[in-house]
Each structure stands twice: as C-alpha cells, then as structure tokens.
Specification:
By secondary structure, this protein is of the alpha/beta class. The protein is built from 13 helices and 16 strands. α3 (about 80-95) packs across α6, α7 crosses α13 (about 350-365) and α10 (about 285-295) packs across α11.
Length: about 425
C-alpha cells in the first residue's frame, strides 16, 4: 500500500479515548489496569433473575451530559453516546485542537460494534408493546443501524472523510483500527479516529447470550467470574464500553510536536469458516491472522515481547488461542509474556479489541505489562507465559489479538514510540 507520494506512511497513535468499567480516558483506563481489580458485579441494570448468568461489567460513572450538550445527549442512544464521548477524549488527548486539528475532509472515522444500537431498539420495542407507537422515540430508526456510532462521531466533530461502521462481532474494534491504519498508510486519509463501542446490557440481548450458555454462571462471586486462562473459567462476562485511538502519519505527528504514544505497524485478519460460536480448535485460521499482521509490519516472531490476548474466559477460546499463538510465534510462544485483561472489565464484545489495543499501546508507552486478574491456576492445555501480576518490560513490539463469533479473527502489531 503506497501513499500519494509513492512511499508507505508510518502511522502513529497520538491519542486514546476510553469509557470503560475500570476507568475513563487514557489515564483512567491505565490506572484501572494497574489496580488489577475486577469491575464485574451483580447486574442491576434490569432484572436478570430469570437467567443462568446474572453478572456483568457495567459502567456506573458515565454521565453523557458531562461529555455532550444536554440536547445531543438526549438524542443519542448509549452506544452512540459512548462512541462520541470516547472520540472526543481521543481528540483532546491527541491535541487535535485549534491549528493542530487535521483537515476535516482528510480525516476518517472507523467505529466497530457487534450489536450497535440493538439494546436501544429492544427498549423501544418494549415501549411500543406497552403504550403503542406514539411511545416510541423518534430517533429509533437512526439509532439501531451499525453505522450510527461512526456517523454520530463524524457529525459531532465535523469530520468529512470516510465514516465506517463494521459489525464483525468481537473483532469489530480491532478491525476498525486495522482498516483505519491501512487507509492512513495508503494516503486515503491523513488522520483517523478508530475503535469500538458496545452497549449490550438489555434483557433480551443479554438473555440471548445467556440462553446459549456462553456466559459465566459464577453468580455467587461476581468479581472472579471473568478469569482468562484459568482452569476454572466457565464463560465470558458481558460488559459495555468504548475505546478510540487517534491515528495520524508519524512524520506529521513529529512535525507538530505531538506526544507519540506508539506506532501501528501491522494488521491481519482471517475467518475460521468453521462455526458461529466455537473457534476452530486447531487455531490455524487465527494463527493466519497473526502471521499476516507480523508480515504486514515486517516484524519477526522474536521481536514480539508482549501479547494482549483475546482471552474471553470461555472454555474453548483460550485453548484455541494458545494453539494459534504456538503456530504463529513458534518457539517464542512459550516464553513471550501474555496477559488477558478481560478479567478486569469483562467482555464488551465489539469494543474489546479497541480497549485491548489501547492497553497494548499504553503498556509499551509505560514500559509495564499488565497482569491477568483472577488467574489462580493456569489451564495446563494453554502452555503460555501468562502474567499474573504487572511486569516491567520494554518490548520491541506488542501483539493484540481479537477473535469473534462467526470465526472472525483480527490481529494488530504495535511498536513503541
């Protein structure tokens, strides 16, 4: 992929915006990671007593009016509120203000989400059944489609480049970052806001996952329900959240004196073509995504010094992911430090890859690799160097993996600033 002048452009991360159960903004997210304490609790957003799983990672301290004007906050559903709030934070963190703001018609938005505004649609359907069509919010039609997050960010910030929403299940956020990275590198745009947002905590939406028994049933001890790589894991914990990265060409970032947090260097994607909910047991397709990301960035397996794994805390995922890492990284797989950070904030579906990409960049920036919350006994089938506690290190490169329903796989490779 070549830029307009014939040379591929290097892509810097200059801002991070985040709204998560463990903290907001780049600083709040990182402080939540270092605390190494789970935000999972008993679900109180609605009555979940009918379901086998009754725990979730909820964001309890997000006030839309703190980030948007009151009228706009009322018009947006929670999915779009999270998208816009995280994007505004990323813009501020990047210093894209006044004369430093990139040209609007050369800036794009990529926001991934597994479910988009489905939960809001569910809420409005309940209103329709109870009180008729006049009770339905007039914004319903424009809230439920998958591109609403990207569209609302573009409108809010006046960005006129491509505005793209994808619904690639739990790989959505990573896919969005990868596609934005490719667009900047190729010269299609000069800057991008890229990430994921998810607001799935509504009765039918939550219940649909509970009914297929992919959620943890550890209701008596919510704080330990999400336990990546642990031999006792029994399912993922549904969560909400958003993260957005501000991306721009490295030379432009350096020219304006920006604080460069890290560099996106590689992206790879693949499909298992196997099953809608179970990963391909061999890990071959997931390994292909990792290999593609490494090749894309010209990074060798030996250079990978940290892996932020998808590690959803399901019985099947971690074993398949470990096999994928062994196939992709070879002998390096048994020694490279790995962490699964979903023990902290659960699994916010399409937002998880973006949150974990942000954490990988912050780990490189701070020289500190996160631990794995709730890991008590490593599953013997995993055979990876999974960190229990944070570890000081300065890796040459980091890998972030995301694997979703439908067998959709994505991998991102980052280098430090």
């Amino acid at each position: 992929m070549k830029a307009v002048d014939g040379a591929p452009r290097r892509v810097a991360v200059t801002g991070i915006g985040a709204v998560t159960p463990i903290g907001h903004g780049a600083r709040g997210l990182w402080e939540g990671v270092l605390a190494n304490r789970s935000a999972v609790a008993e679900l109180d957003r609605f009555d979940a007593s009918a379901f086998p799983s009754r725990v979730a990672a909820q964001i309890t301290d997000f006030r839309p009016e703190d980030h948007l004007d009151a009228r706009r906050a009322r018009r947006l559903d929670r999915f779009s509120q999270l998208s816009v709030a995280a994007s505004r934070m990323a813009v501020e963190h990047a210093g894209w203000t006044d004369g430093a703001a990139p040209a609007p018609d050369r800036t794009g938005v990529w926001i991934g989400s597994a479910l988009g505004g489905v939960a809001f649609g569910e809420e409005q359907h309940a209103a329709y059944v109870a009180r008729g069509v006049r009770a339905v919010a007039p914004t319903l039609a424009t809230a439920v489609f998958g591109g609403a997050g990207a569209s609302n960010v573009a409108i809010d910030l006046g960005v006129r480049g491509p505005a793209v929403g994808n619904a690639n299940s739990c790989a959505s956020g990573a896919m969005a970052i990868g596609q934005a990275f490719q667009a900047i590198r190729a010269g299609v745009v000069d800057a991008a806001l890229a990430g994921g947002a998810e607001a799935p905590l509504a009765p039918l939406t939550f219940g649909a996952f509970a009914m297929i028994r992919v959620l943890s049933g550890r209701n008596d001890d919510p704080a330990t329900a999400s336990r990546p790589f642990d031999v006792g894991r029994d399912g993922f914990v549904m969560a909400e959240g958003a993260a957005v990265l501000a991306l721009e060409p490295l030379d432009a970032a350096l020219e304006r004196g920006a604080h460069v947090l890290g560099e996106v260097v590689g992206f790879g994607a693949s499909a298992d073509a196997y099953h809608l909910t179970a990963p391909l047991p061999s890990g071959e397709a997931a390994a292909a995504a990792v290999r593609a990301a490494l090749a894309d960035g010209g990074v060798s397996a030996e250079e990978i010094g940290y892996v932020n794994a998808h590690a959803s805390s399901t019985p099947l995922n971690e074993v398949a992911e470990a096999r994928a890492l062994h196939l992709a990284l070879g002998s390096r797989a048994e020694s490279v430090p790995v962490s699964g950070t979903k023990g902290l904030y659960g699994h916010p579906l399409g937002a998880s890859g973006a949150i974990e990409a942000a954490i990988a960049v912050l780990a490189l920036c701070h020289g500190l690799l996160p631990g794995t919350c709730n890991l008590q006994e490593l599953d013997p089938e995993v055979r990876l160097n999974v960190l229990r506690q944070p570890m000081a290190a300065r890796p040459a490169a980091a890998l972030s993996t995301s694997f979703g329903f439908g067998g959709l796989n994505a991998a991102l490779v980052f280098r430090p600033a």
